[in-house]
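Model it.
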Amino acid sequence: MTDALPDGLPPSVPVRAAFDVLVRSSPAALVHHAVRSTLLAADLGRRLALPLDDEVLAVAGLLHDTGLTAGFDAHAEPFEVAGGNVAWAVAAGAGWSVDRRDRVARAVVDHMLDDDDVPADERPEGYLLARSTGADVSGRGLEHWHATLRADLEARWPRLDFRDTFSACLRDQAARKPASVVAAYVAAGGADRVR
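Modeled.
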C-alpha cells in the first residue's frame, strides 16, 4: 500500500495526519473502504453544492471506521463514537476550533445513521458519509455516482477482503455492544449484505 496521500483529498496537514492514523491502525481493506467512501462523499458534495468543509469531510471520512480497530476500539462505546473521538483528537492536534472538532466527530457518528436522518444543509459531512459509506458497504444508492468514477475508485483502491474483514468487525462489535446501532444492523442481516 502506498503512503502517498490519495488524489482528490485536500493536501493539508490534518488530512495527511488522518491518513497516517488510518494506515497505521487499519487493515488494508478498511483503508481502501475509507478512501473510496471519502472520495465518493466529496464527489457527491460537489455535485449537490452542499455547504461543506472539505477538510472536515476528509478527516471524518478517513477515520470513520477507526473505532473498529484494536488500537482505537472503545470497550463500552459504539465504534462510531470511538472513531469520532479519534477524529476529534486529530483535529485538536491540528489546532482546529472546538466547534470544528465537534463537527468532525459528529460527522463520524452520523455515518451510521440513515442519510434521511441527517439534515444535509445542517450536517453536510455526516449526510454525505452516511450516503457514501452505505453505498460502498452494501451497494445501496450506488446509482448516485457515475459508473466510471466507481470503477476508477475500485481499480485504485480495490475491495481486497473487505467483505470478510468488515463483516467480522461488525459481528464483533454487535456481540460486545448489544445496545449499539451496529448490533441492530447485524440483527437485521446487515453483516450478510456487505458486498
